[in-house]
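Handout, section B. The chain below has 424 residues.
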Amino acid sequence: MKQLKRTLSLLLVLMTALSLSAWTVTAQDDPAAAGGNSAASGSTGFRQEDGSWYYYVNGSVDRFRNDVIRGTVNGQDGWWYVVGGQVQTGYTGVADYANDYGWWYIKNGRVDFSRTGIEQNRYGWWRVVNGKVDFSCNSVEQNDYGWWYLLGGKVQFGYTGVADYANAYGWWYIKDGKVDFSRNSVEPNSYGWWYVTGGKVDFSYTGVSNYDNDFGWWYIQNGKVNFGKTGIEQNRYGWWRVVSGKVDFGCNSVEQNDYGWWYLTGGQVRFDYTGVADYANANGWWYIKGGKVDFSFSGLGSNRYGTWYVKNGKVDFGYSGAYERGGKTYMVVSGNARDIDAIIQGMSLNEKVAQMFIVTPETLSGGSSATAVSSTMEKNYKSYPVGGFELTGSNISTPSQLTSFTSGLKSMSQSAVGVIPFIC
């Protein structure tokens, strides 16, 4: 019995010694627990030790606590940013750790409920409203460094284009997350392509964009590219051919808008041009006056391909005959007009003499009763291009045959000497 009592006494002494040893290690290793005041009290809350403030739970610093917690620090009540159990009085910015109510803007360790702006933590830059990160913010907002595009409250540094969300001032062009006020272009977002001037979408503008993008020039209607537009539209540089919303710089033609038909080269209306257009459209060749088709004009007009007979603004390729203008006589062949004097001056003496004769077709064909142009006739005509042909009954069988025969005679003469023969 005495032996048992002695053993129990030794165990009690040993346990007491171990307990004191453990307390001593804790006091030495944990500055916040030095002196054992808080640990002994079993309190929960903020407590200052050695110039720093810590958050205690049941008398011990909560080393795993990363939070924003309400309490009193340095005599000031508020919500305090705690990392590893220690109040971060030197920290200013969005807290890296949230609490149950959200993410908060911290100033010198304490939530600053007066703060509204865009602020940073290790995860990015965030929209802060009254001290709290606003994760519902989809907008363009400002801080000291500029205006920024936010989605879900976060600045989108990876985004370039027109913002999908506007702010109170309009829609903006974003470059790497920031409004680029120097941008003048046509740029996209999820809703279309938009006309941007000074970094802002110009909803008031309708017409061809004054600025291009990497893909060309575009027709804008109320600030937005209208891909359904085909016509002739204006910008500060002129009037342009638009096809499916885009300026067609390859257009060389005569095209229409609400004000008339216009002559275009390189996609632009040529207001400086008067004469027959060098380029036709699907309806023919046209006489242009000051860039516009003049439907009131009838007469001769020129382009780089020659001089042409025009009737009611359009080249009449079906007309052949003589035409007088300014004291000169022109020979018109299938709409193409040539000065008779110039034609004669270009003839050889043999051709001039031959033009003085009118003969029967048989004179050139070498046969009897010629009713069509033969190869023999064409060969002989090149040597003796007479000025005309006298037809007799033997040269005529039917109206259609007569039309074909006279057309062949004219074509043969035009090809050889450039004039229409006299046919009787």
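Note. The longest strand covers residues 76-83. Compare this with the example in section A.
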